[in-house]
Design brief:
The chain has about 300 residues and is an alpha/beta fold. The chain is built from 13 helices and ten strands. Bound molecules: adenosine monophosphate. Adenosine monophosphate binds next to helix 2 and strand 5.
C-alpha cells in the first residue's frame, strides 16, 4: 500500500495505473466498520482502490469540532493495509489550500439542496464539502467514488455536482452501517463516553424506526396526518420512555424529504426519506431512513431499544 501525501505523488500513482479503473473513498479518517463497508464496495467495483484521509477545515464552522476531531492515522493506515487498499492519500491543509482557505475558488451547490437540514444548521458546510471533494476528484482522477447514505444530504449534493459539472465519475451510494442497537456508526460516536450519553445516542435511530414502522403498520402518516405533528410526538415519547430530557439531548431537525428532489414533504410516500440531527452535549449525530428500503438494508433487523405508543 502506498502512502501519498502530495498532489504530484497522486498524479504519478494515477499514471502508473492508467489502464485500470480507480475507486476513491473520501474520508476524514478515524475509520470504523462503516467506512470499511465502503472500502469493500470499492474493491468489488474497481481494479485499484484509494482512500483519502483529510480532516477538511473548510467544512467546519468556527464553533465546531475541527480541533478535537480524532486523527488516529497509524490505526487508519493499518486498517487500510489489512483491507488490501492500494493507496492512501493523506495531504496536509497546506497541500490542498496553499493560499489558505479564504481566497479560494469554491463549489457552490444549488440552494434548494443546501438551504435545509444540515445546510441550514451548518452554514457553509456543503460548500466546504463540495469544494474538497471536487479537488480530490481532480487530483486523484477516479472512475468511481463511494459515499455513505448515512450522510444523505452530502450524497445528494455530490451526485448533483457530478451531473452539473459533467464529471466522468460514477457515484456509488453505500448503505448505512449500524451497531447492533441500530446506532449509525460514526467517528463522532467516540465522543460519547458516559452511560447517559450512550443511552441518548439510541434516540435518533429509535425515532426513525418508530416513524417508519408507523407508516408500515398503520399507514396513517401516508394517508392524512401531518408528518411534523407525528414526528414531534414520536420524539417526545422516545425521550419519555428512555427517561431523557432536553438537557441531555436536543433536536436540531426531524424532517422528511422526497428523495428525488430533496424537497421537504409533510405527507410520506414511497419516495420519502426521514432525516434527523440531534445534539448530545457538543456532539452532533445525524441519521436517516428510507420509508421503503432497498437491497441489503431491507433485511437488517436491529434491536429497537424502546417501545413507543404513538
Ligand atoms: P467521514 O469520514 O465521516 O467524512 O465519512 C466518510 C464516508 O464514509 C462518507 O461517505 C460517509 O457517508 C461514510 N460513512 C460514515 N459513516 C458511515 C456509516 N455508518 N455507514 C456507511 N457509511 C458511512
Amino acid at each position: 500500500m502506498k502512502l501519498l501525501t502530495t498532489i504530484e505523488e497522486c498524479r504519478q500513482f494515477r499514471e502508473e495505473h492508467s489502464g485500470k479503473t480507480l475507486a476513491l473513498i473520501p474520508t476524514m479518517g478515524a475509520l470504523h466498520d462503516g467506512h470499511l463497508t465502503l472500502l469493500e464496495q470499492a474493491k468489488e467495483k474497481a481494479d485499484v482502490v484509494m482512500v483519502s484521509i483529510f480532516v477538511n477545515p473548510l467544512q467546519f464552522g468556527p464553533n465546531e469540532d475541527f480541533e478535537r476531531y480524532p486523527r488516529p492515522l497509524e490505526d487508519d493506515l493499518e486498517k487500510c493495509q489489512s483491507m488490501g487498499i492500494n493507496a492512501v492519500f493523506n495531504p496536509s491543509s497546506e497541500q490542498l489550500y496553499p493560499n489558505g482557505q479564504h481566497s479560494l475558488t469554491q463549489i457552490m451547490p444549488p440552494a434548494h439542496l443546501t438551504d435545509k437540514l444540515c445546510g441550514k444548521s451548518r452554514p457553509g458546510h456543503f460548500v466546504g464539502v463540495a469544494t474538497v471533494v471536487q479537488k480530490l476528484f481532480a487530483i486523484t482522477q477516479p472512475d468511481i467514488a463511494v459515499f455513505g447514505k448515512k450522510d444523505a444530504q452530502q450524497l445528494k449534493i455530490i451526485e448533483q455536482m457530478v451531473i452539473d459539472l459533467n464529471l466522468p465519475i460514477t457515484i456509488v451510494p453505500a448503505p448505512t452501517a449500524r451497531a447492533a442497537s441500530g446506532l449509525a456508526l460514526s467517528s463522532r460516536n467516540d465522543y460519547l463516553r458516559t452511560e447517559l450519553e450512550q443511552k441518548a445516542a439510541l434516540v435518533p435511530f429509535t425515532v426513525l424506526s418508530h416513524i417508519k414502522s408507523l407508516t408500515e403498520q398503520q399507514n396513517n402518516l401516508k394517508q392524512s396526518k401531518s408528518f411534523k405533528k407525528i414526528a414531534q410526538q414520536v420524539w417526545q415519547q422516545t425521550l419519555d420512555t428512555l427517561k431523557l430530557d432536553e438537557k441531555t439531548i436536543t433536536l436540531d431537525y426531524l424532517e422528511a424529504v422526497d428523495t428525488r428532489t430533496f424537497n421537504t414533504v409533510d405527507i410520506l410516500d414511497e419516495y420519502s426519506k426521514v432525516l434527523i440531527a440531534c445534539k448530545i452535549g457538543k456532539t452532533r449525530l445525524i441519521d436517516n431512513i428510507d420509508i421503503i428500503e432497498t437491497g441489503s438494508e431491507k433485511t437488517k433487523q436491529h434491536t429497537q431499544p424502546v417501545a413507543c405508543a404513538v
